[in-house]
Amino acid sequence: MPYRRSRLASAVALTSAFFLPAPPACAQSAASATWSVTIVLSPTLVAGGPATLAVFGADGRLASGVTVETSRDQRVTTDSTGRATFTAPAQGDFLLARSLSDASVALLDTGADANAAATAPSGTSHALVLAPVISLKDRFTICGGGFRGDADANRVQINAQRALILAASPACLVVLPGPKSSPGPVVVTVQTGDTQRTAASTLVTLEYDSPAAMVPGKKTKLAVRVRGTGQSLRIVVENQTPGVLRFVRGDTQEVRTSGGVNNFAEIEVQPVRSGDYSFHARLVPPPDPSAAQRYLRAAEPLAPKDLQHRLRDFADRLARHPNDSEKIRRQLDRVISSTIAGDLRTLLQAAEAAL
Asked: Are 226 and 93 in a shared domain?
């Protein structure tokens, strides 16, 4: 969830600012604003099957008119909804989708896994799989198979409130809750054709508490509060304006909320100068060591020889000790920090995100 504060005339204090919410995700931005974009893919595609992707512009809105390369011989352009349909490759371990300014990766299921994902839902093997806690302001994933690759051929509701399907494949959907959804326990319903499935989750919002005063050079604390659950949650807070507001323990911090009725986490900050400042708070999704292994093994052939053994070791350790995900994630983060932008880095970042 993004937060932004207004610029102040005073060069001394950072008080008397106001909150500016993020623009609605369902609005479209002009193609001229899409020089910096984010591509959203279903995390798992089915080989040779249909799929839908979405593109967000730098303004946080779905962007029309953006061309994305989904394979060496296939390019698609987002329509007025900011989405585009395409066909996944018939072979391979993954798909890289690229634009001029971003790249995203999805795993590719083939053989029996692909057939299971594409089969119409029947029995418990096709139960919906989603995180136990989801955020009102951020997209989340629903897996379980039996979906349609055309996003509009599926329908998702959260407590009877329509949600927006951003990306889709027969294996998984990527969904953004509707703005009228309310925090608390929810029932998520997915309708695909004549089949309807449900799953329980909890919807939360992450809200910002303004300090009483913010003075350049003087440390204070920002509080992020959770509405919708008293459960202690892991969240990541990212500083988007380090030149204005410094996070004392690093510009990206993972913290755990206190739990209870007053459920919050604090970040120690130090104002640098007067000006606009913003940050983004999001939930940490449950780890998926299996997906991380697949990304690491896909990255191995692209890595320099001196790195290949290390990536293989990460994948093997995850297979033997999946509970070591956090330790391996920290080690992988150090590898990513010294890896230049490109397909290898994109795969490594996907593995880190899965942990």
From this structure: no
Question: What's the pTM value of the predicted model, to 2 decimals?
Answer: 0.86
Distance set, CA 48 to CA 86, 98, 108, 148 (Å): 10, 19, 9, 13
Residue 330's SS3 state is: helix
Domain that holds residue 50: 28-204
Of the residues 283, 298, 329, which one is the last residue of a structural domain? 283
Burial 197-208 (b: 16+ CB within 10 A, else e): bebebbbbbbbb
Q: Positive or negative CA dihedral for 192, 195, 201, 204? A: positive
Are 143 and 223 members of one domain? no
Last residue in a domain, options 283, 309, 340: 283
- Per-residue model confidence as pLDDT tens digits over 151-201: 999 999 999 999 999 999 999 999 999 999 999 999 999 999 999 999 999
Cα gap 96→108, rounded to integer Å: 10
Half-sphere exposure of 86 (CA within 13 A, CB side): 28
Residues 350 and 233 in one domain: no
